[in-house]
Design brief:
Layout: H1 6-12, E1 15-21, E2 27-33, E3 41-44, E4 48-51, E5 58-62, E6 68-72, H2 73-84, E7 93-96
Parallel strand pairs: 1-7
Antiparallel strand pairs: 1-2, 2-3, 3-4, 5-6
């Protein structure tokens, strides 16, 4: 898959959900998907872009405040579906780690 930037990821996917640090509220990543059920890619500062991991694997999203979130794929998918179903785009947010416990 060719490298994408944030703008391309937003343009090429119907749904974008922001992942915010649970401590300082900074955006640590965006998760993109073609629909509200299927997250496929992510973007995180300073421009890293990649495919989401398969079940059982994790992606790490560090924040400038020192928090570091290793997010397991199955929990991220569930949180993405819940956030993507919100009607207003500005409400499509995952709070890390609160939305991923369980």
């Amino acid at each position: 898959m060719p490298l994408m930037d944030r703008k391309s990821a937003r343009r090429d996917n119907a749904v974008t959900v922001r992942a915010r640090c649970g401590r300082c509220e900074r955006v640590v990543a965006e998760v993109h998907g073609p629909d509200a059920d299927t997250p496929t890619t992510y973007w995180s500062p300073p421009g890293a872009f990649g495919l989401l991991p398969r079940v059982g694997l994790a992606v790490r999203w560090p924040c400038r405040c020192g928090s570091n979130y290793p997010i397991r794929a199955e929990k991220l998918e569930a949180a993405f579906r819940a956030a993507a179903g919100r009607s207003r785009r500005r409400d499509r947010v995952i709070r890390l780690p609160a939305d991923l416990r369980g």
